[in-house]
Amino acid sequence: MEIINLSTQAIIKRVAKFSPVIMLVFTLLLSSCSDDDPTPVSPDEVEVTLKQMTLREKIGQMFFVRPETLDTTIHWKEYAELIPLELQEVNDCMKKVDAKYPVGGVILFAWNIKDESQLVQFTSQIKALKSKPLLCIDEEGGRVARIANNDRFPVKKFESMAAIGATGEPQEAYNCGNTIGSYLKKYGFDIDFAPVADVNTNPENVVIGARAFSDDPAVAAPMVVNYLQGLKDAGITGCIKHFPGHGDTKADTHFGYASSQKTWKEMLQCEMVTFKAGIQWGSQIIMTAHIGAPNVTGSDVPSTLSPIILQDKLRGELGYQNIIITDAMEMGAITQQYSSAEAAVGSIQAGVDIVLCPKNLTEAFEAVVKAVEQGSITEARINESVRRILKLKMSYQ
């Protein structure tokens, strides 16, 4: 049945210029309008659960954190300080903090992972926490691969997404996603913050580079949806990132401010090609970029905190209805301008559903509670996000 809209047809015409095989695979994936929910969940189930939750429980679902966040004896300023700590098991402090601040998800990094037996034990311990968090990881393949770049794990390693894109074969992207998804499922994960949907158009880009499939959106788009399908078929939920596109920047948002000078019209012709493809396919999660887009928003505010980017463009114009998650809020692009409280409240007001890795969880959490109590964020707004999160979370049960 042909259900491809005009904008998608335009994309496919561009794709067809490169390879009939790419066009065929891309068309089949988009026309299927695949949805990567592992198991369908009825709205009634979600509503029953939502009504039983306290405000704090609902707000907690909107925070995904690193394990160290739940251990309040740990204080750090630089990422390098976390590495030697090797927090690789749940301790009593973490259990107590989770009871008061019941988070919706936990993301593991390379230093949280030792070997197969430790990882399986750790993921089981995390899932046994009171809040029953989802398990997440950045396992893109290439240089960002917390498991594959650990020599103790007998899993396939991939050179880069750029190398896969260069093959011109979307099947290679599917194979990559499916391979990664299969071992993530084995080790207890639910969500992979991959693939990168950025189009790497700036040769001076220091943060995306070979993490992107291509510098051409017509090549990148079918790679992105095939990778997502590969993850889905392995039972893992993917996430396209970094909206509205980190590929045309120079600076690294891990350490400070970065921006794209493109207009929205220019983004529609490049960055939005891949994001539209992911949305059409049925991506359940989109991650924001902390980049400014002054020629779209009229200000230097990071996209993560911009209602113009997230509500007017992503939800309104592009019609995206699923989960919006921030990039890590502990990154310099955020912490150099905002407190944990300001960033959490501001991002939710802008339209995000999940605040990832706040620098100070307790400060951010209590600020959102206070914002609801004082009326600057309505509980109805909280409920919108929690419905989306519960739909995904309950699909794993």
Topology overview:
Elements: H1 6-16, H2 20-32, H3 43-51, H4 55-61, E1 63-65, H5 92-100, E2 105-108, H6 116-127, E3 134-137, E4 139-141, E5 144-145, H7 161-167, H8 170-186, E6 191-192, H9 217-233, E7 240-243, H10 264-269, H11 271-281, E8 285-288, H12 294-297, H13 307-317, E9 323-325, H14 332-335, H15 340-350, E10 355-356, H16 361-374, H17 379-394
Parallel strand pairs: 1-2, 1-10, 2-3, 3-6, 7-8, 8-9
Antiparallel strand pairs: 4-5
Helix pairs in contact: 1-2, 2-9, 3-17, 4-17, 8-9, 9-11, 15-16
Distance between the termini: 32 Å
Largest sheet, order of strands side by side? 6-3-2-1-10
Number of separate strands: 10
Shape: globular
The SS-based structural class is: alpha/beta
Biggest sheet layout? 5 strands, parallel
Tell me the helix content. 40-55%
Q: Regions with pLDDT < 50 over 5+ consecutive residues?
A: 1-37
| Computed Rg | 20 Å
Average predicted local confidence, pLDDT: 89
* Strand fraction: 5-15%
> In sequence order, what are the helices and strands, one letter per element?
HHHHEHEHEEEHHEHEHHEHHEHHEHH
Number of helices: 17
List keywords for this structure.
single chain; 397 residues; alpha/beta; five-stranded parallel β-sheet; three-stranded parallel β-sheet; 17 helices; 10 strands; 45% helix; globular
